[in-house]
Amino acid sequence: MGLRRATLQDIERVVEIEKASYTFPWTRLLFLSELDNPVSRFFVWDKEGTVVGYACYWVVEDEAYLANIAVDPPWRGMGLGRRLLECSMESLKREGVKEVVLEVRQGNKIALALYRSVGFRIVGKRARHYEDGEDAWVMRVKFQEVEHDGARDCREACKEP
Q1: What is the total count of domains within the chain?
Q2: CATH number at residue 92
Q3: 3-class SS of residue 151
Q4: 16 part of the active site
Q5: How do strand 63-71 and strand 99-105 relate by DSSP bridges?
Q6: 3-class SS letters over 83-125
Q7: What confidence tens digit (pLDDT) does each residue in 84-124 have?
Q8: Are 84 and 2 in contact (CB under 8 A)?
Q9: Which residue range(s) make up the domain with 142?
């Protein structure tokens, strides 16, 4: 199926993926609140009826903030994270978003490589940003400056959210 908007039925699966992915996971209540948040764009990646990843953005005017993204550990390393990121950003772009901003742990080399591969660049640093004191890189991609490789495929293959 591919990319689609998250529903109430997806929350338990999203929470499972979140707990398997993060030391300080979002709660079920936080994910539930995203379903009704008017600035939230909460996507899941559906693989044959199973949610295997999700991405949650907050959109204000023409800028989006990537608040949370994860792929279920058994599905990692197959390109799904990149596909989820590219397709969700393509959906945001169709909505009029011009740039996406995010924060990522400085030590998360895999995430840094993924974000760079779709055009994100480091634009700042947040000292001691995370609960454990680790610093974060602030990254940004401006759609006018980059056309990500998967955008063409996403227009055809990603289900319209």
Answers
A1: 1
A2: 3.40.630.30
A3: helix
A4: no
A5: parallel
A6: HHHHHHHHHHHHCCCCEEEEEEECCCHHHHHHHHHCCCEEEEE
A7: 999 999 999 999 999 999 999 999 999 999 999 999 999 99
A8: no
A9: 2-157
Which among 115, 130, 131, 147 is annotated as catalytic?
115
Q: What percent of the chain has pLDDT over 90?
A: 81
User: Which token pair is 35?
Assistant: 């379903």
Alpha-carbon distance of 44 to 112, in angstroms, equals 21
Return the minimum-mean-pLDDT range out of 8-12, 125-129, 156-160: 156-160
For the chain, the residue count is: 161
Q: Contact at 8 Å (CB) between 118 and 104?
A: no
Give the H/E segment covering residue 82.
helix 80-94
115 tagged catalytic = yes
**Are the C-beta atoms of 56 and 15 separated by less than 8 Å?**
no
Catalytic residue among 65, 103, 130, 134: 103
pLDDT of res. 125: 95
Phi, psi of 145 (to 5 degrees): -95, -10
